[in-house]
């Protein structure tokens, strides 16, 4: 298909019904589909509602919404109105949301319904009323109803590429959540770059089984997909059945997700190969990111869906990618090459291995700085930012990610990367998901501890799993403590939530 349209160069232009694009489907969510013309009209209407509410450029809007077509209209409508967006995951707890609202002082909070299944929703009216200054609180159904008769305001708000457009909060695993502030121009550059490396174009149908409040879904899939003139398929509750149904119905060409979703899909595809094949009919690219992908999980997905899983590596502070595997090359087992949009250096852990160490990045396309307790701590573009991730670069420039520095286990003075132990566990035929952490131990400093969930109908004992690892990885690395669990806890993006793992459940294994 040849298309006569222009790749948007500003956030206000994303989702526009340009010539050639107007009738094309931009978004789908279950049975609902929106063409680019529909979406453009909805974004303008959302802009109109913001203006009617008296919001002016530079005001902050908090979105507390699950993924939906209304989210997309509210998001780009805010960009067209020159507002600064703070999308928050509605699954965050009331304390965390209360802290962010009180320090960031938004003009408007646009939230899901009072009875929506999120812990904060019922308490939100009281929480917002107690704030000083008190923001407006509007529920999404009322916002959408006002869009029907909003005066469509096509007046272009002129925004400079250096202007702040978006504040994304980190998950706050250590201390208070921090808000990464992003420039308009950086978001556009990053979206264009990931589209180029991943080869995303107007014929693509991108599956988005991720929350739109997180960079992966928001920047790579929603922003990138719409910049490319593709179709973005929203699956707000990504059970394997819902994902397969959406893939089949919309004939998805690019499937992107976190590793836990790939593991669940591989399992589903194995038990129902016909459904897997029907879903993968047009699939040309699968792409994992957000957390380590055990090679066995990638292989299991390929066996069921016929497409290998490529990887990418990103973070909230970069919105989004730091390294990406090209769509044109076979997967390397790593996360691909470093993005040319950033400067990089590797700070070696030891002089003997100069290509292995903590990755630092710099440049204008990563965040402008963090908001800490409501105040921006500006970050000069030339200043190195430590990712906290330990990487290795091979001779071809491919990056292999070990783990976060602070998750590295030091057992008896030896370094153990949890991802290596997780990969060994995931290669056991009974294992669905594995998460490895270090737990304090008087004798060895930190002991290697594994939490594992099993495939349906499969069985394995802690000792079997420890012995399986012992036969595959170094003696100091195999887990001496194992817990077999029904399910592993995950965060809203689907990443395994290691801090919620309870060491009291671990059993010592005596595998000798
Ligand atoms: P967040 O900002 O919440 O998305 O978390 C970013 C962190 O997720 C990175 O610093 C990495 O530690 C981890 N991460 C992201 N992508 C990958 C990947 N492909 N493999 C392993 N870890 C990843």
Summarize the entry for a quick read:
With 512 residues, the chain is an alpha/beta fold. The protein is 28% helix and 26% strand. Among the domains are: 24-158, Rossmann fold, CATH 3.40.50.980; 408-508, ANL, C-terminal domain (GMP Synthetase, Chain A, domain 3), CATH 3.30.300.
Major beta sheet, strand line-up: 2-1-10-9-11-12-13-14-15
Query: What value does the average pLDDT take?
Result: 94
Biggest sheet, in brief? 9 strands, mixed
Question: What's the gyration radius in Å?
Answer: 23 Å
Class of secondary structure makeup: alpha/beta
Question: What fraction, in percent, of the residue positions are helical?
Answer: 25-40%
Q: Class of the domain at 24-158 in CATH?
A: Alpha Beta
Per the CATH scheme, the topology name of the domain at 24-158 is Rossmann fold
Distance between the termini: 62 Å
The geometry reads as globular
Bound compounds, each kind once, are:
adenosine monophosphate
Provide the β-strand percentage band.
Answer: 25-35%
Low-confidence stretches: none
Number of distinct beta strands: 27
What is the helix tally?
13
CATH architecture of the domain at 24-158: 3-Layer(aba) Sandwich
Report on this structure.
- The protein has 512 residues and is an alpha/beta fold.
- Among the domains are: 24-158, Rossmann fold (3-Layer(aba) Sandwich), CATH 3.40.50; 408-508, GMP Synthetase, Chain A, domain 3 (2-Layer Sandwich), CATH 3.30.300.
- 28% of the residues lie in helices and 26% in strands.
- The chain is built from 13 helices and 27 strands.
- Strand 22 and strand 23 form a beta hairpin.
- The longest helix has 17 residues, at 36-52.
- The chain is globular and about 70 Å long.
- The mean pLDDT is 94.
- Adenosine monophosphate binds at residues 170-171, 215, 289-292, 311-316, 335, 387-389, 401, 404.
């Amino acid at each position: 298909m040849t298309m006569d349209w222009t790749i948007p160069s500003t956030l206000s232009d994303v989702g526009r019904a340009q010539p050639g694009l107007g009738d094309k489907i931009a978004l789908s969510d279950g049975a609902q589909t929106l063409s680019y013309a529909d979406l453009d009209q909805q974004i303008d209407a959302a802009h109109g509602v913001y203006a009617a509410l008296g919001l002016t450029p530079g005001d902050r809007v908090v979105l507390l919404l699950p993924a939906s077509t209304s989210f997309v209209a509210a998001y780009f409508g805010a960009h067209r109105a020159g507002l600064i967006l703070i999308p928050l995951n509605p699954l965050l707890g009331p304390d965390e949301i209360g802290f962010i609202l009180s320090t960031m002082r938004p003009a408007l909070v646009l939230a899901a319904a009072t009875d929506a299944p999120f812990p904060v929703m019922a308490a939100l009216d009281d929480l917002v009323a107690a704030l000083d200054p008190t923001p407006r609180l509007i529920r999404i159904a009322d916002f959408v109803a006002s869009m029907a008769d909003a005066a469509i305001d096509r007046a272009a708000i002129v925004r400079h590429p250096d202007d702040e457009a978006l504040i994304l909060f980190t998950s706050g695993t250590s201390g208070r959540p921090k808000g990464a502030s992003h420039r308009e121009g950086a978001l556009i550059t990053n979206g264009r770059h990931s589209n180029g490396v991943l080869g995303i174009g107007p014929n693509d149908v991108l599956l988005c089984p991720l929350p739109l409040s997180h960079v992966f879904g928001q920047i790579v899939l929603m922003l990138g997909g719409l910049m490319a003139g593709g179709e973005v398929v929203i699956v707000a509750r990504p059970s394997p059945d819902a994902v397969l149904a959406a893939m089949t119905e919309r004939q998805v060409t690019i499937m992107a997700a976190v590793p836990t979703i790939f593991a669940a899909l591989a399992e589903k595809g194995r038990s129902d190969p016909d459904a897997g094949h029907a879903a993968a009919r047009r699939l040309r690219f699968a792409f994992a990111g957000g957390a380590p992908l055990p090679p066995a999980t990638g292989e299991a997905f390929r066996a069921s869906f016929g497409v290998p899983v490529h990887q990418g590596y990103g973070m909230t502070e970069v919105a989004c990618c730091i390294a990406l595997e090209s769509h044109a090359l076979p997967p390397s087992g790593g996360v691909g090459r470093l993005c040319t949009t950033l400067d990089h250096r590797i700070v070696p852990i030891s002089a003997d291995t100069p290509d292995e160490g903590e990755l630092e990045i710099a440049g204008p396309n990563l965040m402008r700085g963090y908001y800490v307790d409501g105040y921006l701590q500006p970050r000069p573009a030339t200043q190195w930012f430590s990712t906290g991730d330990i990487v290795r670069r091979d001779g071809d420039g491919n990056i292999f990610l070990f783990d976060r520095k602070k998750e590295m286990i030091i057992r008896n003075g030896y370094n153990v990367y949890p991802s290596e132990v997780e990969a060994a566990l995931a290669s056991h035929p009974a294992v669905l998901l594995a998460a490895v952490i270090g737990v304090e131990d008087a004798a060895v400093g930190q002991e290697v501890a594994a939490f594992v969930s099993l495939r349906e109908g499969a069985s394995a004992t802690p000792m079997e799993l420890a012995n399986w690892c012992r036969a595959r990885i170094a003696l100091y690395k195999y887990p001496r403590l194992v817990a077999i669990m029904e399910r592993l806890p995950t965060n809203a993006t689907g990443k395994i939530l290691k801090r919620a793992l309870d060491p009291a459940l671990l059993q010592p294994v005596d595998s000798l």
